[in-house]
C-alpha cells in the first residue's frame, strides 16, 4: 500500500510540475502540507479530492490513472496523432476548445496517457481529418469498414459486376438515411451546456454529419460504378474530395473510383496537391495505385472526348508513381498513354494497347487483362458486349 501511495504521489508531482502549479496555487483545495505529504507518499487523499485537484490543473482522473500505471496505455494512438498534427502544422494549443491543453497533448503524443475516444475524434474533427483515415493509420494494413468497401468496389468496377455495385449502393443509402435521422433528432433535443460539453455536443452533431457524408459518398461511389452521376451528385463528390486535407487509402480510393466522371480541373488540382508530398505517397503501393488510377481514368475519359492535351498533362503528372515495379500500375499507365497515342493518330498506340493486354495475360492478371480488353473493344474496335 505504501508503494502505491508513493507511486501516486510521484505521479501527482509530475503532473503538477508539468502544468506549472505551485503549492500555493492549490491551497483553496488542499493545504501545502497535505500536498507535500501526498507527493512524498506519507499520506493519501480521497479520489474525490484528487479529481478536484486534477481538474483544477487541467487534467482528468483518467490521465492520472494512465500516468501512474494503473491503466494500460496503447501508445500508438498518441504517436500517430502526433505525426498527423505535425504534418498538418497545427500548434499544441489548438485543441484547448475540446479540453486538451498543451501539457495533456504532450502526454498523449508521448504515449504516457490515452485520451477518451470521443475527445480524440473531436480533435480529428478540428483538423478536418476523417475518422476512418486515422483508424487506417492506427491499424496499419487492417481494413476498416469503408476501406473494405472501396477495395470491393475497385474489383467490381474492373469486372463490371453491376449487381454487386447496386447492392452496396442500396446498403450505403440505408445507413446514410439512418445517420441523417440521428442528426435531426440531435438538433431537436439540443440544450445549452457548459463550454467544453457544449463543444463536444456540437461536435457530436458534426460527427454524425460526417458519418452521413461518408455513407452518402460511398453510396454515390457505388452508383458511379454502374451509372452516370448527375451534376448534383458529381458536385457532392467534388465537395467531399475538395475538403480532404490528408490523402490516405479511403479518400484516394473514392477519388480513383470516381475519376471517370470528375471534372479535369478538380483532378488536376488534387494531384498537384498530392505531388507536394510525393515522398509520402510514392513509398506505398496502394497509394501509388490509386493515384495512377485517378490520372489514368480521368485521362481516358478526356481522350474519348477529344481533350488529348489535358489527358497528356494528367498522365505526365503521375509518371513518377508509375515507375515502381507494380504490374497493374505500370500496365494501366502504359495503356492510357497508348490510347492517347491511338487517338492522336499514331498506329503504334493501338499496337501498344494490345501489348499491354498480352502482358496482363502472360503475367496472369485476369482482372486487369479483361478490363483492358473490354476497353479496347469498345473504344478502338467500337464493339459492345452483349
UniProtKB/TrEMBL annotation:
Residues 30-64 form the HTH cro/C1-type domain. InterPro entries: Cro/C1-type_HTH, HTH-type_regulator_Rgg, Lambda_DNA-bd_dom_sf, Transcription_activator_Rgg_C. This is Helix-turn-helix domain-containing protein. It comes from Lactococcus lactis. Pfam families: HTH_3, Rgg_C. One of its GO terms (molecular function) is DNA binding.
Amino acid at each position: 500500500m505504501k508503494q502505491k501511495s508513493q507511486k501516486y504521489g510521484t505521479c501527482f508531482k509530475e503532473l503538477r510540475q508539468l502544468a506549472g502549479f505551485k503549492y500555493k496555487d492549490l491551497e483553496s483545495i488542499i493545504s501545502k502540507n497535505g500536498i507535500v505529504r501526498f507527493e512524498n507518499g506519507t499520506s493519501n487523499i480521497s479520489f474525490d479530492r484528487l479529481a478536484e485537484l486534477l481538474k483544477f490543473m487541467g487534467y482528468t482522473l483518467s490521465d492520472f490513472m494512465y500516468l501512474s500505471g494503473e491503466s494500460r496505455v496503447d501508445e500508438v494512438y498518441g504517436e500517430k496523432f502526433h505525426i498527423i498534427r505535425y504534418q498538418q502544422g497545427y500548434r499544441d494549443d489548438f485543441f484547448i476548445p475540446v479540453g486538451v491543453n498543451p501539457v495533456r497533448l504532450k502526454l498523449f503524443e508521448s504515449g504516457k496517457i490515452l485520451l477518451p475516444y470521443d475527445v480524440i475524434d473531436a480533435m480529428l474533427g478540428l483538423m478536418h481529418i476523417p475518422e476512418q483515415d486515422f483508424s487506417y493509420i492506427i491499424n496499419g494494413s487492417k481494413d476498416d469498414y469503408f476501406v473494405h468497401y472501396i477495395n470491393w468496389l475497385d474489383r467490381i468496377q474492373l469486372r463490371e459486376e453491376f449487381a454487386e455495385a447496386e447492392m452496396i449502393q442500396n446498403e450505403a443509402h440505408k445507413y446514410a438515411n439512418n445517420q441523417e435521422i440521428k442528426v435531426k433528432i440531435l438538433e431537436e433535443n439540443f440544450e445549452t451546456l457548459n463550454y467544453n460539453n457544449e463543444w463536444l455536443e456540437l461536435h457530436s452533431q458534426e460527427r454524425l454529419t460526417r458519418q452521413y457524408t461518408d455513407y452518402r459518398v460511398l453510396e454515390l461511389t457505388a452508383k458511379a460504378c454502374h451509372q452516370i452521376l448527375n451534376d448534383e451528385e458529381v458536385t457532392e463528390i467534388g465537395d467531399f474530395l475538395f475538403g480532404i486535407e490528408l490523402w490516405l487509402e479511403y479518400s484516394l480510393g473514392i477519388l480513383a473510383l470516381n475519376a471517370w466522371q470528375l471534372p479535369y480541373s478538380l483532378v488536376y488540382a488534387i494531384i498537384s496537391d498530392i505531388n507536394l508530398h510525393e515522398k509520402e505517397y510514392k513509398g506505398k503501393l496502394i497509394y501509388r495505385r490509386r493515384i495512377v488510377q485517378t490520372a489514368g481514368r480521368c485521362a481516358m475519359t478526356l481522350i474519348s472526348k477529344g481533350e488529348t492535351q489535358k489527358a497528356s498533362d494528367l498522365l505526365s503528372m503521375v509518371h513518377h508513381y508509375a515507375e515502381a515495379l507494380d504490374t497493374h500500375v505500370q500496365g494501366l499507365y502504359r495503356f492510357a498513354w497508348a490510347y492517347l497515342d491511338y487517338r492522336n493518330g499514331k498506329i503504334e498506340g493501338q499496337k501498344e494497347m494490345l501489348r499491354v493486354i498480352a502482358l496482363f495475360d502472360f503475367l496472369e492478371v485476369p482482372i486487369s487483362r479483361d478490363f483492358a480488353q473490354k476497353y479496347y473493344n469498345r473504344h478502338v474496335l467500337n464493339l459492345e458486349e452483349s
